[in-house]
Amino acid sequence: MLDKLKALTRQLNPVQRALEATQGLPSLTPVAAMEFIAGWLPQQQNLLEQPTRMQEALWGLDPLCRERLAAAASELMRGQLTRLRLQLYANAAQPYVQALYRAYLPCVQQYKLSLVQKPHEQFPPHAGFLFWGTRRLVMEFITTRQAQQTQWRELYAAIPAILGEKLPASALPAARLALAQFCLVSSGLAAELEVRQVDIVDRLVGMLAPFVSFSQQPRSGIQYWLDIHQPHPPALVDLGKLPPPSNGLIYIQFERVLDELLSLETLIAQQAQLPTKLNFDGNLHRTEVLVTLRQLRDKWMGKVATRRHERKLMDKFVFLALDLPAIRRKVAGFEQAGTRTINLGIERARMEDISQSGIGLRVPAEAWAKVGLAVGIQVEGNPRWVVGVVRRLVNTQTASELHMGVEILSLTPQSIRLVEEARLTVWEQTNAGGALDNVFGVWIPPSVHSHEQAMLLLEKPEVVIGKSYGMYYHGHKGMVRIKDQVEVGDNFYRYTVDVVEALSASVEKAQELDF
After folding, report:
1. Start and end of every PilZ domain (predicted)?
2. pLDDT in tens, 103-142
3. Burial annotation 46-56 (CB, 10 A radius, 16+ → b, else e)
4. Which of 8, 48, 100, 500 has the fewest CB atoms below 10 angstroms from its CB?
5. Beta carbons within 8 Å of 157's beta carbon, 6+ residues apart
């Protein structure tokens, strides 16, 4: 009898009937599940006439919807990110995210009206509304590189109930976190971020959101402001020119966020691996995360990335040395034609453009193409090798190719070996066993390309900050002191150094990047 009553209750409850239609979603592929929800949810809004019923249905459905979107994004990040794969993902994800956002919107509006009478003790929609509003912003940015369609005041309508603590105590923490994530994403997306980096930003803000705080008055440090009555994204506060007073003005403090971001960068560099919470699916590379961390920090601090030099179109073939040993061999001229190592770690690519700070290449869409990769570059027919770091990868119309942007560090790099200061005076007597203590790397002499700072590229972090080392190359010798580790790349560690004892022939004479 009890079972019959339960069955009858399910039949009479429209929310239960609606949710029963979604029971098969876990067995569907992420894309198929998203396509189903995108078509099914608008129909249910007509059936579940009252926003409170729709909110009850969303409360039960939301965790599965988030999981399906995360699974689809993880699949996208797993392989080479071609235009076709991105388009297929966007075709499924955009209407899906839009449907969920639109389903939550009347629930938030109804909740605001109900506060005049009494607040709902169940199913407050604010956390879900801001979550899908943030996803909607991310999807728009991925597909259009801007956020012109975002309805800011529509999203801001959820803020007063959250910061005014008008929600049930059990729902308030999740809503505040969702608001913090929305503020971080909307102020952190920048035009230079690639699609993979946008996903990394999305993951990072989930870790950083607990460190965001809100106030009605400006404080010291990096902070943003928004006005819930104005249709504009959060903006960086200029303490010398505060926004006009308003009863909808809110300040968002970023100081602790930036501190945590720096701590995370240091942790990743020291441990040489990514936190599981960030790289939960194993799809991220350490270097692209570190690059994204720096870009995100610069964006939040108001540092605008601008092109330093004009591009000049080129059409030449180049050779690329893809690892530090290969770069060392090439810049030192160790090899001779016919030896077994001459083509080891070498790829061929086409140069498309050049500026005084870098070059643009068209390369095969292969696994070695990564942001943060140190490369040696030689134009076909030119004996000179230069050294740079991959800073940008962009999809082309052809799925088999990528556009690669390389920042040039030096036009006259040198293959060097370091030895500890204590061994300097007996260097020539070092035996074969002692030679294992050598540290091999690439010397970047001071130049306009290195911002007049001498640097070293090493394959491993084998030096000590503050320590002095003897340095040898091509019969020249000198001494350098390690200042700081300034970058952890995909295949290198970059250190700034001070020249303690003068190095002969160490200053770049060539200042023009011209092939």
Report:
1. 345-420
2. 999 888 888 777 655 555 567 899 999 999 999 999 988 8
3. eebeebbbbbb
4. 8
5. 108, 109, 112, 228
Could you give the C-alpha distances from 477 to 79, 331, 443, 473, 481, in angstroms and in order?
46, 17, 12, 7, 14
| Helix (H), strand (E) at residue 488 | strand 476-488
Q: What is the spatial distance between Cα 393 and Cα 63, in angstroms, rounded to a whole number?
A: 34
Q: Rounded to an integer, what distance in angstroms lies between the CA atom of residue 79 and that of residue 125?
A: 35
Chain Cα centroid distance, residue 202: 8
The residue assigned the tokens 């100081």 is 255
| CATH of 312-410 among 3.40.228.10, 3.40.50.410, 3.40.50.170, 2.40.10.220 | 2.40.10.220
| DSSP-H helix ranges across 246-361 | 255-271, 286-300, 324-332
pLDDT-based confidence at residue 309 (cuts at 50, 70, 90):
low
Token pair of 316 as six digits: 């030449």
Average pLDDT over residues 172-177: 94
Mean pLDDT over residues 34-38, rounded?
89
Q: What is the mean pLDDT of the chain?
A: 82
Q: How far is CA 350 from CA 41, 274, 308, 342, 378, in A?
A: 49, 33, 23, 20, 11
- 309-315 contacts, C-beta under 8 A, 24 or more apart: 309/355, 309/356, 309/357, 310/355, 311/353, 311/354, 311/355, 311/360, 312/353, 312/354, 312/355, 313/352, 313/353, 314/351, 314/352, 314/353, 314/354, 314/359, 314/515, 315/350, 315/351, 315/352
The Cα-based distances of 19 to 6, 59, 95, 239, 456 in angstroms read 15, 10, 20, 51, 60
CB 129 within 8 A of CB 158: yes
Q: Where are the domains of the chain?
A: 25-300, 312-410, 414-501
Mind listing the pLDDT tens digit for each residue in 69-101?
999 988 888 866 667 778 888 899 999 999 999
